[in-house]
From TrEMBL:
It comes from Methylobrevis albus. Residues 231-331 form the HTH araC/xylS-type domain. InterPro entries: AraC-bd_2, AraC_XylS_family_regulators, Homeodomain-like_sf, HTH_AraC, HTH_AraC-typ_CS, Tscrpt_reg_AraC-type_HTH. It comes from the Bacteria. Keywords: DNA-binding, Transcription, Transcription regulation. This is AraC family transcriptional regulator. Residues 1-31 are annotated as: Disordered. GO terms for molecular function: DNA-binding transcription factor activity; sequence-specific DNA binding. Pfam families: AraC_binding_2 (PF14525), HTH_18 (PF12833).
């Protein structure tokens, strides 16, 4: 998995993994130099295309771009424009997919004889190996660019997909957007293993999103989608476990699911949200206690992983590992 992501990461040094990059353009729509400057930067960092404003007045194009585990995620706010990827913009070495989700305004996508017009809460999957056009009436959308090989690795039935319009109410799209929101809001450097998990789960959600509109795809069965969601919930716990106020209602708001749905998903693994959160915190604490060279106090570690008081932590730790935190540290040769 890591090798695949590393091989397919964007080549531009400006798009360092985990670092946010702004691609902005402001000016008069009639000023071709402003438009072309933004178009050039957009082509260098994201994807080659020809940009044409479709309305007179002010040209405004803003994209916040971040690469996570080899998957490029961008949040766009654009004035009315058309972005045309003709045959001359295609790269022989680029076999990727773009997944665009409207958040405000309307989008129209055309690829060959196929056209999709949609508004907020709908999406389209396009192929970079085909000429296509994306037109916006002005507003915002989320764009995700990922290697086709990555999607094919988790959903072989989608290996040759080139175009798919995803309608409103898709069951996996909301969870995907919650993941994307966590990515674009995160300004801190993301550890490689976490970044790869994010990339994998975003890809799984895209596969499930597409599969909901292609019910014959065996890989996108209901049980497979629920397994993806359970794995995604664990990744979200890994990211937010240190928050001492992380109850199920707060967590539900983070992942974009109801508390009832979360409990039902965990019940399929014969556990609960609170049990999984406690287990995650204890495991993070165990790793910190046994880490060579660590001199942090037991209390500091307990608070850092999300426990509110040391006595609760000590009791839970002993039940989980049949020894106290101090005894485990002593076994490793480290002092309190």
């Amino acid at each position: 998995m890591g090798a695949l992501l590393e091989e397919t990461a964007p080549e531009s040094a400006d798009l360092a993994p985990g670092r946010h990059t702004a691609v902005t353009g402001e000016g008069d729509a009639a000023d071709r130099s402003t438009v072309e400057t933004w178009q050039k930067r957009f082509a260098e960092l994201i994807i080659p295309c020809a940009v044409r404003p479709t309305r007179s007045g002010r040209f405004s194009a803003n994209a916040d771009v971040v690469v996570v585990g080899g998957v490029l995620v961008a949040r766009y706010v654009l004035s009315p424009m058309k972005m045309d990827r003709g045959e001359d913009h295609r790269r022989a070495t680029d076999d990727s997919l773009t997944f665009s989700v409207a958040t405000a305004g309307k989008l129209r996508c055309t690829q060959g004889a196929r056209t999709a017009e949609f508004g907020a809460g709908e999406a389209v999957l396009l192929s970079t190996r085909s000429a296509n056009t994306l037109e916006t009436t002005g507003g915002g959308f989320i764009g995700i660019k990922l290697p086709r090989a990555l999607l094919a690795s988790c959903a072989p039935a989608h290996a040759d997909i080139d175009f798919c319009h995803i309608g409103a109410g898709n069951p996996a799209l909301r969870s995907l957007l919650a993941y994307v929101d966590a990515v674009v809001r995160n300004e801190a450097e993301m550890p490689q293993v976490v970044a790869q998990l994010f990339a994998r789960h975003m890809t799984d959600f895209i596969a499930a999103t597409v599969g909901a509109d292609r019910p014959a795809a065996e890989d996108d069965s209901r049980s497979a989608r629920r397994a993806v969601r359970r794995a995604a919930l664990q990744t979200a716990i890994d990211l937010h476990h240190a928050d001492p106020d992380l109850g199920i209602e707060r967590f539900a708001g983070i992942v974009g699911l109801s508390a009832r749905t979360i409990q039902a998903l965990f019940a399929e693994d014969e556990t609960s949200f609170s049990d999984r959160l406690r287990e995650t915190r204890l495991e993070k604490a165990r790793q910190a206690i046994q880490r060579a060279g660590s001199h942090a106090s037991i209390a500091t570690i307990a608070f850092e992983v999300g426990f509110r008081d040391i006595s609760t932590f000590n009791r839970a730790f002993r039940r989980a590992y049949d020894r106290t935190p101090g005894e485990m540290r002593a076994e490793g040769g480290w002092n309190h």
